[in-house]
Amino acid sequence: MNLKQTMIASVLAGIGASLCCVAPLVLLSLGLGGVWVANLTAFEPVRPVFLGLALLFIGLTYRKLYLSTQICEPGKPCTDDEVIRKQRFIFWGVTIPLLGLLAFPWFAPLFY
After folding, report:
1. Which of 38, 68, 91, 100 has the most beta carbons within 10 angstroms of its beta carbon?
2. Degrees to nearest 5, angle at CA 7 with 109 and 88
3. pLDDT at 14 over 80
4. How far is residue 63's CA from residue 46's CA, in Å, rounded to a whole number?
5. Which helix (DSSP H) or strand (DSSP E) does residue 56 occupy?
6. Is 104 helix (H, G, I), strand (E, B) or coil?
7. Domain coordinates in residue numbering, the chain
8. CB-based contact 78:84 (threshold 8 Å)
9. Residues 53, 10: Cα–Cα separation, whole Å
10. DSSP code for 46
11. Which secondary-structure segment (H or E) carries 101?
12. What is the mean pLDDT of the chain?
């Protein structure tokens, strides 16, 4: 997997992990309610799977950005320090809110 794929996979896994708790709160705050909102908690049993996947993909992306050396041909974008800096900025810009989404179920009772 390349860097972009691991970042996208970690975001999707994080959204899946927080779907059981964040989605009902967002829908209720928008004024949408009803019994069907309670059905969104059906995703709770698969939350640990998504949580593990999100952390795995975040770790893979971190490893690819910071720990492994990239072998590139001269003139490719991966040799440019500016591109690497932007990739790291995007990584942290996605990872911090994603970790907040993953931790949301522990903070959700404070909002209800």
Report:
1. 91
2. 100
3. no
4. 26
5. helix 47-62
6. helix
7. 3-100
8. yes
9. 7
10. G
11. helix 81-107
12. 77
